[in-house]
């Protein structure tokens, strides 16, 4: 990834040793102690931008490379959270869906994930995959379904992320495949 368009450095005399960075929109803000020299500042800014970009890349979907990687990830998640019981025949990215983030057809064990999710953090895509994989075990959204889904430790967080993403984009999507998040069992 290329260096961001804007890097802002914030010096603080109260900051003694620690250097940190965060992204605000397209700007990377690097916090450094006030005593640092210009050369140390340049070195630390470059280092912190690299660290931040690596961290962001790790959080992005591991499945961005294509359908094969998406299927590999789904099999790994099935082993880890669903006792290896969910075995999809295909898992693939599809053109943006109008009303859903993803869908599953249990009859032929196919899973489709909306291209809209390609740039969300990997843990969100993992949740969507778990949700759809669970439909291979439990077709509806009953208590058994949600018991399986909630084996994934970030399930609630990912549902909130998707609700926020939907609201921010004005998409009006309520859940993964039309389910109402508030109607879920714990």
TrEMBL record:
<dbReference type="InterPro" id="IPR002725">
    <property type="entry name" value="YgjP-like_metallopeptidase"/>
</dbReference>
<protein>
    <submittedName>
        <fullName>M48 family metallopeptidase</fullName>
    </submittedName>
</protein>
<dbReference type="InterPro" id="IPR053136">
    <property type="entry name" value="UTP_pyrophosphatase-like"/>
</dbReference>
<feature type="domain" description="YgjP-like metallopeptidase">
    <location>
        <begin position="94"/>
        <end position="152"/>
    </location>
</feature>
<dbReference type="Pfam" id="PF01863">
    <property type="entry name" value="YgjP-like"/>
</dbReference>
